[in-house]
Design a protein that fits this description.
This protein is mainly alpha-helical. The protein contains 16 helices and no strands. It is about 75% helix and about 0% strand.
């Protein structure tokens, strides 16, 4: 069954930045591994989960309840119920990787990592090509602009950390190949001009540098902070006359829409504060809320909230939001305490995830698969030790 897991991870590596369809193969195969290894672990009584997993289990239960209670209000229930699989993959994936990591060979890891590198390069080259020949000032990725931009920003921080700590990784990590892969990936991400993604990257970068060299981290981290503050200053007080998306002010049309989405999500949460309107079902109430409360951008009336945490709150209520935040904070604490590679690879990713999620719902198919894969993989190395503390 470990071969099935490896095959699943191959499709995950190939599809994260290139195709939702390819990810379907990952989901099918990984589900088989999850069922098999969970049964074995349960039978042998060897399931050891970190505390963060119990927060995620509780959140998944609340998310399920939110869908059951609001079933009649959900336009396509199967799609919403289907989103629960990402959380289940995060929880069950810990068990899967406990088995897989024991037997995965250097060759298998190398093949999977190089497949992931190819995926980054193909997506990056396409974004660059699109920007030069097809765009009107903004690159589009193979998986669309937003999900490619946000996903790349998070994962590139982990890749950069791996390059800087190459001596701690096995021979399966080709750091010389990783450098041009990072450059191509960053170029593609930057050319999408996705502001929230770049902000997340800049906020995670000081942590990458700090874990590599504290003095370098403080110096370059300080410069990154100054850069972020400069962008915030231009956004709040700038004239808005620049042609660059990174130098627009708060009155641009895109952000008028985004603030309208935020306000609507807050209103939706107030209307159903305990269990919300159902996981990922905020969009079904958006048109009504914007009309009833006379919000801006009424024509933008069938979309998510452009903020992951507001989306969670509007969909699963305050109860769901508390449990979700408990998972995020618990995972961060476990990763930080883990020291070593887990900390340096996960913490920068997590910072970018939290920051960029203030501007986008980062739980699309590609990025949710990536986020919960990294969660499960990092927790598999921690679960037994942490559960005994």
């Amino acid at each position: 069954m470990n071969m099935v897991t490896s095959a699943a991870l191959f499709f995950l590596a190939a599809g994260i930045f290139t195709s939702v369809t390819i990810l379907s193969a990952y989901q099918i195969l990984f589900s088989l591994s999850l069922l098999y290894f969970s049964f074995i672990a349960f039978k042998e009584k060897t399931i050891h989960l970190p505390k963060s997993a119990y927060w995620l289990i509780a959140f998944t239960i609340v998310a399920l309840l939110s869908l059951v209670i609001n079933f009649d209000l959900i336009p396509k229930p199967s799609k919403n119920f289907g989103r629960l699989k990402y959380f289940i993959f995060g929880i069950g994936g810990i068990v899967v990787f406990e088995f897989w990591l024991k037997e995965a060979t250097e060759r298998t890891k190398k093949i999977l990592l190089n497949t992931f590198f190819v995926s980054i390069v193909v997506a990056g080259i396409y974004a660059i090509y699109h920007f030069i020949f097809l765009s009107q000032g903004r690159a589009k990725g193979l998986t669309d602009t937003m999900r490619y931009g946000y996903g790349s920003a998070m994962m590139l921080l982990t890749l950069l950390s791996a390059i800087l700590h190459k001596e701690k990784l096995g021979s399966w990590f080709n750091w010389k190949l990783a450098i041009p892969v990072f450059i191509i990936g960053f170029t593609g991400m930057y050319l999408t001009y996705t502001r929230g993604a770049l902000l997340g990257f800049l906020c995670g970068l000081p942590f990458v540098l700090y874990f590599f060299n504290k003095k370098l981290g403080y110096v370059l981290g300080g410069l990154a902070v100054l850069g972020v503050l400069g962008l915030v200053g231009v956004y709040l007080f700038g004239s808005g006359q620049s042609n660059s998306r990174f130098l627009v002010n708060k009155n641009n049309s895109s952000d008028v829409i985004r603030r309208s989405q935020w306000k609507a999500a807050i209103i939706a949460t107030k209307e159903k504060p305990i269990l919300g309107w159902g996981l990922s079902n905020f969009h079904s109430q958006l048109k009504r809320i914007k009309t009833d409360y006379d919000l801006d951008a009424k024509e933008y009336n069938d979309a998510h909230s452009h903020n992951l945490f507001l989306e969670i709150a509007s969909g699963t209520g305050i109860l769901g939001l508390i449990l979700f935040l408990g998972w995020v904070l618990s995972w961060a604490w476990e990763a930080f305490r883990a020291q070593g590679l887990t900390r340096v690879l996960v913490i920068p990713f997590g910072v970018a995830f939290v920051v960029s999620s203030q501007f986008e719902v980062t739980f699309d198919a590609n990025n949710a698969s990536m986020i919960f894969f990294l969660y499960a993989l990092s927790s598999a190395n921690l679960s037994k030790r942490l559960s005994k503390r």
